[in-house]
Design brief:
mainly beta, Elongation Factor Tu (Ef-tu), domain 3, 8-stranded antiparallel beta sheet, 10 strands, about 55% strand, globular
Length: about 80
């Protein structure tokens, strides 16, 4: 099962990071699924930052940077995979 937790607001190709404003809670170690027009992959969140500071968890309303393993596009939907 998946729960929508945000939309990609920006993608920084050089460093492979997406910016997401969260609609729910997210922790390092959670599995996310990013889906869009040409994007569709799952990965474990290995690092997350708020205002250039590493954090282990973030809550609804936070804007976070997440390192990703593949290309993303602005507008792609971010889901948290829940068991």
């Amino acid at each position: 099962m998946e729960e929508k937790i945000g939309v990609v607001e920006d993608y920084f190709a050089k460093i492979g990071v997406i910016a997401v404003k969260l609609d729910g809670e997210l922790n390092v170690g959670d599995v996310i699924h990013i889906k869009g027009h040409t994007t569709d992959f799952q990965q474990t969140v290995e690092s997350m930052q708020i205002e250039h500071k590493n954090v282990s968890s973030a809550k609804k309303g936070d804007s976070v940077g997440i390192k990703v393993i593949d290309k993303c596009r602005k507008g792609d939907t971010v889901y948290k995979v829940v068991a």
